[in-house]
Known about the structure:
The complex is a heterodimer of chains A (122) and B (109).
Chain A: E1 4-7, E2 10-13, E3 19-25, E4 32-38, E5 45-51, E6 57-58, E7 67-73, E8 76-81, E9 90-97, E10 112-113, E11 117-121
Parallel strand pairs in A: 2-11
Antiparallel strand pairs in A: 1-3, 3-8, 4-5, 4-9, 5-6, 7-8, 9-10, 9-11
Chain B: E1 3-5, E2 9-13, E3 18-25, E4 32-37, E5 44-49, E6 53-57, E7 60-65, E8 70-75, E9 84-91, E10 97-99, E11 103-108
Parallel strand pairs in B: 2-11
Antiparallel strand pairs in B: 1-3, 3-8, 4-5, 4-9, 6-7, 7-8, 9-10, 9-11
Amino acid sequence: GAVVSQHPSRVICKSGTSVKIECRSLDFQATTMFWYRQFPKKSLMLMATSNEGSKATYEQGVEKDKFLINHASLTLSTLTVTSAHPEDSSFYICSATPGTPSSGAYFSYEQYFGPGTRLTVT
Amino acid sequence: GQNIDQPTEMTATEGAIVQINCTYQTSGFNGLFWYQQHAGEAPTFLSYNVLDGLEEKGRFSSFLSRSKGYSYLLLKELQMKDSASYLCAVLDSNYQLIWGAGTKLIIKP
C-alpha cells in the first residue's frame, strides 16, 4: 500500500514554456502533499506544502507565481513550472502523507514519495 | 536556526557493519526518520524513532538519544545493493520535516 505516482518521469522543454507535473496517491487519500526539488548530490529542498482544497504554503525563496501548485482532490496535486528557464532544470519529487497535524500518530507524517520527475530545460 | 548534520560520504566493505550518525538542532522534536535513496530515485522509508533507544528491523537498526540530539543508523551484513544515500530527517514542533543533506554510502566488495 501507500503508492504515489508521478508523471511524467522525464520531460525536456524549451525555455519559456510551461510544464505540468502530476502527483497522485493511488491507494490512500493524501491530506497533505509536498513538493521538493533536488540538485545533484544535494538533499531534498522543500518547495511547498499543499493541503487539499486550500492554497499551498511556499517555502521562503520559492516563487509562487512561477511554481503553481494545485491540490484539487485528496489524490491529486499538480506542480506547474511556468516560463521555465535552464536553471529550473532539476529533479522534482512529490510526497504525500495521509495524516494531519492533529492526528498525533507518527505514521501520519511518514511521507510516501513519488518516483520523481527529471526536468531539463533547454 | 534548524540544523541536521550527517557525514557526506562513507565507505564500507561488503559483509561488514557501518554506522551512520546524525545530529540535530531543531525547534521542537516530534520524531526522527531515516530514508534510503538510490541515485536517481525517490527516497524510501527505513525507520522512525520518537523515544530514546534502539529500534531493530532486520539488518537495519536505528538509535535515538533525544537529550543528545543524536541518532544513528546501523547497517549489518552489508550488501552491494545497500550503496545509496541515507537521509536523516527530523519532525519539528510544527510537524515539518527538516532534512539532512544525506550520507552517500559506498560499498566495496
